[in-house]
Amino acid sequence: MRIAALTKTPFRQEQELDRLHLISVFVAVVDEQGLAGAARKLRLSPPAVTRAINELENCLGARLLTRTTRVVRVTEAGATYAEHCRRILGNLAEADESVSGVIGLPRGQLTITAPVVFGAMHVTAIVTEYLERYPEVTASCWFLDRVVNLIEEGVDVAVRIGALPDSSMQAIRVGNMRLVICAAPEYLKKHGTPKVPTDLESHVIIGGGSVTSETEWRVMESGKLITVKLQPRLTTLSSDSAVSAAVSGFGLTNALYYKVAEHVKAGRLVTLLGKFEPPALPVHVMHREGRHASKKVRAFIDLAIERLRANPALS
After folding, report:
1. 252 with 267: CB under 8 angstroms?
2. Which of 39, 43, 90, 122 is the most exposed place for a label (fewest CB within 10 A)?
3. How many CB atoms lie within 10 A of CB 89?
4. Of 81, 99, 117, the domain-final residue
5. Rounded CA gap, 312 and 102, in Å?
6. Nearest-angstrom CA–CA distance, 100 and 265
7. Which of 99, 119, 140 corresponds to the end of one domain?
8. Taking Cα atoms as reference points, which of 216, 259, 246, 234 lies closest to residue 115?
9. How far apart are CA 287 and CA 304, in angstroms?
10. What digits encode the pLDDT tens for the residues 50-92?
11. What is the reported pTM?
């Protein structure tokens, strides 16, 4: 009797297999941001995907997705559940790999996000090195100057510059990034070098990242972080073009150091008001899988931490 009580019935086993199918469909819907995309990925019909989601929600007694005719969004409960489901599916995938003799080798699709210029300059080389090490992995790089929601957009790893909001994400600090004011030597010869923050008001200002009539630069003065409001002569949505204008000798700009480091090293730009520089911004590698990160994510994070911490631009 005792053995029988511990043995799962065929009906119970069938239920668990069905649940595995349901959570696989649910995670696909979240990752693909829609029912149609999940159907294509799983090679199922859209009605079959809809039935699976409805059945899973009925089993749980909770709404996982909000659906309209145009968009599918994950609820707060659904986002939490999706993370648990990913870990379950990841553990099963690793179990399968152990049988096939490739345990320990990352495989699958990895998606990484970072700011545009920083990604191109410092993350791309890490990604290509990672792909050379692990031929069973493919990668997508989302280099965007906006904050990507890792859970809602199905991104595995992010490199973030700046203070992090309260979050359930796992974050590892890899360095710091200075925010500097700089100008070309030619400009400074013509117009002089600012000595204190108030001197900025008499200089040609290049505002990058917006096209507003006023720009605000942060500086430290008397031990306090203050904001200096300036009237730019040139504004641009692209910080790269602001740096280019500064290199040409047009005026002063304010930028994260990695965007101007090569120009400073080559003597094309000079950093200014160093003793008034604000505290450096933290740089983190973030991921959404916590302590149970998959092998492909763990392997990339380990490499990214090693390479970024050794990067002089982040020290």
Report:
1. no
2. 43
3. 16
4. 99
5. 36
6. 51
7. 99
8. 259
9. 12
10. 999 999 999 899 999 988 767 788 898 888 898 888 888 877 7
11. 0.64
